[in-house]
Amino acid sequence: MPLYDCMLLLKPHVRKEASMELVSRVGKHVYTKNGVVADMKSFGTVQLGYGIKKLDGKYYQAQLMQMTMMAPPSINSEMLRYLNKEDRLLRWLLVKHRDIKYGLEFLSEDDAKNELNRFKSNLYDYDNTDEDEDDEDEDDEYQPETKHA
């Protein structure tokens, strides 16, 4: 099952109990589809870049929440029907995590050791022979001229 992030923008006046009730209902919905909620974050009230117009007014602030979950790919269409009916939400977005690896996870164990050793050898075994040869040529170019009387 792929990993998803569900970003929820709730109206700013929604109480914490009501927002947690909404999140728990979404979590139960994911659970009924054999999914698992892995993480839940609340970012509090955020300022929006532009106003979002709803039937009861225009909103310039919202409560931002993020749910990380593992669910079957069919969850997108089911969340569409489920969350679009919710009047406490301003916007919602479902983002699928890709199989991206960063840093040393990207390399195999042997490759990672070789990569680190190569970096270490380049860092400490710096050779100045090429620059010394260039410096000799430059010294001739910039010699002060002597005046002959």
UniProtKB/TrEMBL annotation:
Residue ranges, compositional bias (Acidic residues): 127-143
Family: Belongs to the bacterial ribosomal protein bS6 family.
Descriptive protein name: 30S ribosomal S6-like
Any GO BP annotation: translation
Superkingdom as given in the UniProt entry: Eukaryota
Organism: Olea europaea subsp. europaea
Chain segments carrying region Disordered: 123-149
GO molecular function: small ribosomal subunit rRNA binding; structural constituent of ribosome
A GO cellular-component term linked to this record: ribosome
Listed InterPro entries: Ribosomal_bS6, Ribosomal_bS6_sf, Ribosomal_S6_plastid/chlpt, Transl_elong_EF1B/ribsomal_bS6
